[in-house]
Amino acid sequence: MTDKPDPDTAGTADTPDTSGSPEPLYTTAKEAGLIGCHACNRVQKRVFTVERQLCVRCGSPLHRRNPDSVARTWALLLSAAILYIPANLYPVLHTSSIVGSEDDTIMSGVAMFWNDGDYPLSAIIFIASILVPMLKLGTLAFLTWATQSGSKWRPRQRTTLYRIVEKIGRWSMLDIFVVTLTVALVRFGSLAVITPGPGALAFGCVVVLTMLASMQFDPRLMWDHIEPSGKKHD
């Protein structure tokens, strides 16, 4: 006759005790001998015996980091900051009608919709055309400066901030879409003629340059200054 197992202690002998297990360690792709392709994102083994390694999938040259990432990002950001001034000073729309002509800048359009009671539309244009480009320029400049100076301050949060900026930056083109749609609609009428102004071109260049700057910036550079302690960064 065999003894029945105690239900309070059943399975404890076969279950490992993980209460005192060490914290899991984290490593980098460099320490693991891996490298990612910038064109097709394929991760593969890094071959140290060749001087110029090519991707096994698309044949593109492999780089551990984007070449001249910080310099290119600074150049694009400075160009966008310079064009941001005429984008807000010069008119984005030129209206000609039987009662006269009128030039509208981004801020005058925001004020016009606000005075007419279209508060949601005014807020959308202000956020997409004024606030988002300004915050994107400032955020990318901060991330680039922190990376260039070798800052170790909160790399995980800076990476998250970069991803947010990269996703919302494309909505800055909303004002250009409004200008294009307005011009196309008014073309069907004969009482007025609306043409885009030089401010629209400058603003479009600002949006494109900031998008290129976020693409040129390599967020992995922020982790190169972090000591490989093997622990997770919160």
Automatic annotation (TrEMBL):
What Pfam families would the database entry show? PqiA
Tell me the superkingdom of the source: Bacteria
Which regions span the lipid bilayer?
Answer: 74-93, 121-147, 168-186, 192-213
* Biased composition, class Low complexity, residue ranges: 8-18
Which InterPro entries does this one have?
Answer: PqiA-like, PqiA-PqiB_transport
Where in or outside the cell it occurs: the entry states:
Cell inner membrane
Claim: Membrane is one of the keywords in the record: yes
GO CC annotations? plasma membrane
Region feature Disordered, mapped onto this chain = 1-25
Q: Which UniProt keywords apply?
A: Cell inner membrane, Cell membrane, Membrane, Transmembrane, Transmembrane helix
Q: What is this protein called?
A: Paraquat-inducible protein A
Q: What is the lineage of its organism?
A: Bacteria, Pseudomonadati, Pseudomonadota, Betaproteobacteria, Burkholderiales
